[in-house]
């Protein structure tokens, strides 16, 4: 029934979809096996993409030829650029998403992708010989062969869901758990752990009184994720904000003794930055209210996601407490919140390509590696799909540097340091975040996508043109002056000091709160010079003018750091021959097998003096 594939991807969540699409677009024959074709790219929790640091990841995946940005744009119901009042390194695109449309768009995109077959079934085991994977076994008893396998099982491996004292096996509400894979991999010598997460109840939006809540609209001129010419709706749906209160907290506390979170019935660590409402009440007892974001799940559905109210308390307690929130007095519940615990594989067992060190040609991506979040999963899937293809076609592996992408930071963090709790991306994890901005992801990464074959010549040419045009515009502002009589009314209206002599446009853009678009309105030469340029090119020039000196300093730091980062360590390097490093460092170095001195320096337990000694040996 099945001939041999180049690659089998197990699971069609955010990681699996990107992995399958990337490898197929590169030319591998791919079979995507997923338990339920009705839940391809299902958003298990919040219907939103992007956010702080996560939005940058979506843009990076898009810049290299992944699909997440395009699909998000097609299903956006509200868009906001977060942190716009801060520096550009913090600007983060976030979109409220139509959950059903997102899943449908992903499925249609996969159906349109050449070299990609889909099979609905559950994988129960791997075909492994001589520590090399060569296919999978399914619950229908079928054995399907492939040269490589990417596992992206999400929260499904031995998943157990909890609502109060009730407990069900399952990978997500109304879906079966996956058994067999963890057990086999553990038997083969891999280590598995347990993590947990939770989700809030969903309610019927027709039963809410929005007049008691604050409206929260998106941006007036909504942006988007993809650098391609995707169209986004200029219509937006409103979200709302309301708050819990003492009565809500007291009611929730009635259920604490039945809460699996407090009775210790759930094993594993949960996401610290996405706590349940019971956790928040417990940890921040001094707070008399917590914010609740009331978010529509789509354009046409009345289903509402109660963001901030993640809970696994008994459903009747959830319901009683919800009705005490302003605007929720008559709320009808569609689905209760629940918690889930699942298996993951500590990611220090992977190499930087996301291939397992133990079993050749087996790659792991997404929540299975201890991460949380669609964006974190999508970018790992994308990278695993690429690297699986590269490996089986004997091409170079793709390892992203920490200084060139959030994707590089994420994978390096996971593989080098591991994670004890669900890992999510933050801007603070990226030491070179000033360079890793959402506005320049295409400039940073499209050449890489192009070299791989995922970005067309035309698309790369557009990026190159943008850089050339932005540089030319910066140059123009340095030579072109502005009359003070033209500038002063605009400066006054924006609360900036007026001029007492004519200046170059460049020096005005250097001022806070003054942008090129403000000056275009009052300077005919600038308006003329920019009339054929798009918004992004003008923005790129403005960011360069305002932050050029900071970028230069950061680039100098990166150049210094790359000297260490580029110092390669051979995979079979024998750390036993170094006598003067600590026992802990030796053990960790053997376990992680760092590729470079830079990676070695980030392993916990490896000290700067261990690195100095190691450097001497490598230089020998
Ligand atoms: C209850 C809940 C709450 C969550 N809360 C949050 C949150 O607050 N914040 C946040 O950022 N993230 C949250 N998440 C996590 C978020 O859903 C994941 O990070 C993201 O979906 C992971 O993507 P993935 O592709 O790794 O896995 P998933 O999206 O889980 O997809 C896994 C896919 O694999 C398929 N599959 C699994 N096993 C098999 C098998 N053996 N054979 C065939 N197919 C298989 C499944 O059917 C599914 O399609 C939550 C998840 C759940 C379930």
Automatic annotation (TrEMBL):
FAD binds at residues 11-16, 123, 178, 367. This is tRNA uridine 5-carboxymethylaminomethyl modification enzyme MnmG. SUPFAM superfamilies: FAD/NAD(P)-binding domain (SSF51905). NCBIfam families: mnmG_gidA. It is found in: Cytoplasm. NAD-binding protein involved in the addition of a carboxymethylaminomethyl (cmnm) group at the wobble position (U34) of certain tRNAs, forming tRNA-cmnm(5)s(2)U34. It holds the Pfam family GIDA. SMART domains: GIDA_assoc_3. Residues 545-616 form the tRNA uridine 5-carboxymethylaminomethyl modification enzyme C-terminal subdomain domain. It comes from the Bacteria. Belongs to the MnmG family. The keyword tRNA processing applies. GO terms for molecular function: flavin adenine dinucleotide binding. Homodimer. Heterotetramer of two MnmE and two MnmG subunits. Keywords: Cytoplasm, FAD, Flavoprotein, NAD, tRNA processing. Its cofactor is FAD. GO terms for cellular component: cytosol. PANTHER family: GLUCOSE INHIBITED DIVISION PROTEIN A, PROTEIN MTO1 HOMOLOG, MITOCHONDRIAL. One of its GO terms (biological process) is tRNA wobble uridine modification. NAD(+) binds at residues 270-284. InterPro entries: FAD/NAD-bd_sf (IPR036188), GIDA_C_N (IPR049312), MnmG (IPR004416), MnmG-rel (IPR002218), MnmG-rel_CS (IPR020595), MnmG_C (IPR026904), MnmG_C_subdom (IPR047001), MnmG_C_subdom_sf (IPR044920). The gene is mnmG. The keyword Chaperone does not apply.
């Amino acid at each position: 029934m099945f001939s041999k594939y180049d690659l089998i991807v197990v699971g069609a969540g955010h990681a699996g979809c990107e992995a399958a699409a990337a490898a197929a677009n590169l030319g591998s024959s791919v079979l995507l096996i997923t338990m339920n074709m009705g839940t391809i790219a299902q958003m298990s929790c919040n219907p939103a993409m992007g956010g702080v640091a996560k939005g940058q990841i979506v843009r990076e995946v898009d810049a290299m030829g992944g699909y997440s940005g395009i699909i998000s744009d097609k299903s956006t119901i509200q868009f906001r650029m977060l942190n716009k009042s801060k520096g550009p390194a913090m600007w983060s695109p976030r979109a409220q998403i139509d959950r059903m449309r997102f899943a449908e768009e992903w499925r249609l995109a996969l159906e349109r992708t050449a070299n990609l077959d889909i099979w609905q079934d559950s994988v129960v085991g791997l075909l492994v010989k001589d520590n090399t994977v060569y296919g999978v076994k399914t619950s229908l008893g079928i054995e399907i062969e492939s040269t490589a396998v990417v596992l992206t099982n999400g929260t499904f491996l031995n998943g157990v869901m909890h609502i109060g004292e009730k407990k069900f096996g399952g990978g997500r509400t109304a879906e079966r758990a996956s058994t067999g894979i963890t057990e086999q991999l553990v038997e083969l010598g891999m280590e598995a752990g347990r993590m947990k997460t939770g989700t809030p109840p969903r309610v019927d939006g027709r039963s809410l009184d929005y007049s008691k809540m604050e409206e929260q609209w998106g941006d007036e001129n909504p942006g988007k994720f993809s650098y391609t010419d995707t169209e986004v709706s200029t219509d937006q749906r409103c979200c709302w904000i309301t708050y819990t209160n003492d009565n809500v907290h007291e009611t929730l506390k009635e259920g604490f003794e039945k809460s699996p979170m407090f009775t210790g019935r759930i094993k594993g660590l949960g996401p610290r930055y996405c706590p349940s409402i019971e956790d928040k009440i417990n940890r921040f007892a001094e707070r008399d209210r917590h914010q609740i974001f009331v978010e529509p799940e789509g354009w046409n559905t009345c289903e509402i996601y109660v963001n901030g109210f993640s809970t696994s308390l008994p459903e009747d307690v959830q319901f009683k407490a919800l009705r005490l929130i302003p605007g929720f007095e008559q709320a009808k519940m569609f689905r209760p919140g629940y918690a889930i615990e699942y298996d993951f594989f500590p990611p220090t067992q992977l190499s930087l390509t996301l291939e397992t060190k133990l079993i050749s040609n087996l790659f792991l991506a997404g929540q299975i590696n201890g991460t949380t979040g669609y964006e974190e999963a999508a970018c790992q899937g994308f990278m695993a799909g690429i690297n699986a293809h590269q490996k089986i076609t004997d091409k170079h592996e793709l390892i992203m540097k920490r200084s060139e992408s959030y994707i590089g930071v994420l994978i390096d963090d996971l593989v080098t340091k591991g994670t004890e709790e669900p890992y999510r991306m933050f801007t603070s994890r990226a030491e070179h975040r000033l360079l890793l901005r959402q506005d320049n992801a295409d400039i940073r990464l499209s050449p890489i996508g192009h070299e791989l074959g995922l970005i067309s010549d035309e698309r790369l040419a557009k990026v190159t043109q943008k850089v050339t045009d932005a540089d030319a515009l910066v140059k123009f502002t340095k030579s072109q002056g502005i009359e003070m009589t033209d500038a002063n009314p605009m400066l006054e209206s924006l609360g900036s000091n007026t001029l007492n002599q004519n200046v170059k446009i460049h020096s005005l853009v250097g001022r806070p709160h003054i942008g090129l678009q403000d000056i275009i309105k009052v300077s005919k030469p600038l308006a003329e010079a920019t009339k054929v340029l798009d918004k992004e090119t003008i923005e790129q020039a403005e960011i360069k003018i305002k932050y050029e000196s900071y970028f230069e300093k950061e680039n100098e730091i990166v150049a210094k750091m790359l000297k260490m980062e580029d110092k390669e360590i051979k995979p079979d390097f024998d750390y036993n021959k170094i006598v003067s490093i600590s026992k802990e460092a030796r053990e960790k170095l053997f376990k992680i097998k760092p590729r470079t001195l830079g990676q070695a320096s980030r392993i916990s337990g490896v000290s700067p003096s261990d690195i100095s000694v190691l450097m001497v040996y490598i230089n020998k």
